[in-house]
Amino acid sequence: MKLDEKTLTQDYIYKGRILDFHVDKVRLINGKTVTRECVDHRGGVSIAALTPENRMLFVRQYRYPYRGTVLEAPAGKLESGEDPFEAGKRELREETGALGENYIDLGCMYPSTGYTNEIIYLYACRVKSYGELDLDDGEFLEPEKIPLEKAAEMVMSGEIPDAKTQILVLKAAELVKNGRL
């Protein structure tokens, strides 16, 4: 069975700085027509950065949609045409002051397949050195180091609800366990 949908019409209802919203009419494989509400996003990147003592770098940041502070791996949006790997190195430096080495590409994740085309590219590295933070205008966060084993426990207990961070913590823990990071 060929699983696809044919776009019949596409109506952009908002074009923003970060997100574009459109409502599409599509034809399903059974011939029926349905509506799809979609959010276009140019994507992002996130890094699991580990110290020599296997402490992972995190940031605490207020996230307005959740009306609270969230513990996350360093991350950020891709600029138009930006290489995800270079963006990851940039975000790590800006948000934690860290420079990484021995990077490993951990693939990508689709954070919410039901309504957005956002892709988050994932990497892991070892921390080589530290410099100063270089936060974006209007960006406020607190860097933090947590032992990787404790971070994995926090994922499993629900203390870290952020999806990209959960994936990075668990992938990094597996890589460390197998001697690959």
Using the 3D structure, state the CATH architecture of the largest domain: Alpha-Beta Complex
Oligomer: single chain
Terminal CA distance reads: 41 Å
Q: Roughly how much helix do the residues carry, as a percent range?
A: 10-25%
Most strands sheet: 4 strands, mixed
CATH class type of the largest domain: Alpha Beta
Report the CATH superfamily of the largest domain: Nucleoside Triphosphate Pyrophosphohydrolase
Please give the number of β-strands: 10
Write a brief structural summary:
Helix content is 21%, strand content 45%. The protein is an alpha+beta fold and 181 residues long. The strands form 3 sheets. A 4-stranded mixed sheet has the order 7-4-9-8, with helices on both faces. Strands 1-2-3 form a 3-stranded antiparallel sheet, with no helix packed on it.
